Amino acid sequence: MGKAMKALVYHGPGVLEVEERAIPMPKADEVQIKIKKVSICGSDLGAYRFASDRFAPPLVLGHEFSGDITMVGDEVKDLKAGQKVTVNPMVLCNDCFFCKRGEGNLCGNRKSMGTAIGGTQTDGAMREYVTVPAWMVVPVADNVSYEAAAMLEPCGVTLACAKTGRTVDEQSVVLIGSGPIGLLIVKFLKALGVPKVIVSDILDTRLAKAKECGADEVINAKDEDVAARVKELTDSYGADRVIIAAGVGSSINQSFELVRNGGTIVLVALMHEKVEIDPMEIVGRGLKFLGSYMFTSEMKEAAQMLAEGRLNVEDLITSTYLLERGQEAFDILNNPQNTEIKVQIEV
Fold first, then answer.
1. Domain Enoyl reductase (ER), which positions (predicted)?
2. Which domain CATH number covers 329?
3. What number is the average pLDDT over the span 165-172?
4. Range of 87's domain?
5. Which residues pair with 9 in a beta bridge?
6. pLDDT tens-digit map of 113-137
7. Which of 36, 64, 127, 238 is 20 to 30 A from 121, alpha carbon to alpha carbon?
8. Distance of alpha carbon 29 from alpha carbon 77, whole angstroms
9. Facing residues of 343 across strands?
């Protein structure tokens, strides 16, 4: 093995450069992973578009990835070289109130691969090798492709969201937004047995894909009155649950129009704008408004679903680019006219 590797390094909005970095070696409690595939997340694309303290350069992006273990530290007992894996990218303290409760997604001390969250630059996976503590590793079955395994982090996010606020008698869910996260949520809602999944978006191509993923009804918000159509599809009451997967502030007030009295609204989109709402919508109608952030055990649950053939995610992967063409991949995704769903980097 050589002493240097290639890495795609983010140097600020619009700038990604392939550089040589030293190959990291595992500590006693770590494993070294040879990266195969990395999925580009919306947050990676956000860093590429706008400067942010969460992505302070220089930084290697990428937190959705798969590969093979190449080395294990002396203290690692349950993992071995040659094993196909992915990684939970949340670098937790494992010592706070939330971590001890099994709620690591709420850890206030956490860092995250491919970000500068927590005030520390933590390089991600758009490079040939990474090292991570063994407890972050999620083993992947041999019959699961590297492409699918590199989708397991967003699968964890979306499975957790699909379960948030769910009730045993739930009959209908409206999903606002059918980007990569929304489409995965559709798959999990149907896997969980939701009888009627209604998806709203403004792109016919995304809505057609939502139907392929299992949506029972789709509504183009540019062509139809979404609230009127949802009422028509739910005996005039509104949906039991509304999930907001579009990062547009207006979708919050729209969700009040779509949910039934006593229903639940779940916000999973990473929305960074202030929104004015009427609190009486929540109090006077007995609504529940919940946030869904990251996941706990769901990444492993999704890995099991892939292994058992109960989940297909490869149909959402629309393009793959070599690491050396990484900036080209980001530029294509940054084009408002692009029709890509999920783009991967091949290392």
1. 14-339
2. 3.90.180.10
3. 96
4. 4-151+313-346
5. 17, 60
6. 999 998 899 999 999 999 999 999 9
7. 36
8. 9
9. 319
Q: Are 321 and 229 in a shared domain?
A: no
Residue environment code for 21-48, b if the CB has 16+ CB neighbours within 10 A, otherwise e: eebbebeeebbbbbbbbbbbbebbbbbb
Domains contained in the chain, number? 2
Q: Cα(227)–Cα(232) distance, rounded to whole angstroms?
A: 9
The helix/strand/coil state of 307 is helix
Cα 330 vs. chain centroid, distance in angstroms? 17
pLDDT, tens only, 246-301: 999 999 999 999 999 999 999 999 988 899 999 999 999 999 999 999 999 999 99
Q: Are residues 41 and 111 in the same domain?
A: yes
- Strand 239-244 to 259-267 pairing: parallel
Q: What is the pTM of this model?
A: 0.95
**Same domain for 124 and 238:** no
- H-helix or E-strand containing 171? none
Q: Which of 135, 133, 128 is nearest to 346 (CA)?
A: 128
pLDDT confidence of residue 221: 97
**Any idea which residue has 């203290």 for tokens?**
75
Helices (H) and strands (E) in the chain, counts: 11, 18
Together in a domain, 108 and 77: yes
Instruction: Clarify whether residues 182 and 87 are in a common domain.
Output: no
Q: Check whether residue 9 and residue 140 sit in a common domain.
A: yes
Tokens standing for 88?
């939970």
With a cut of 80, say whether residue 2 has pLDDT above it.
Answer: no
Within this chain, do residues 242 and 287 fall inside the same structural domain, yes or no?
yes
CB 82 within 8 A of CB 105: no
| Structure letter (DSSP) for residue 284 | T
140 contacts 66 by C-beta, under 8 angstroms: yes
317 and 257 belong to one structural domain: no
In the structure encoding, which two tokens stand for residue 186, read together? 């559709």
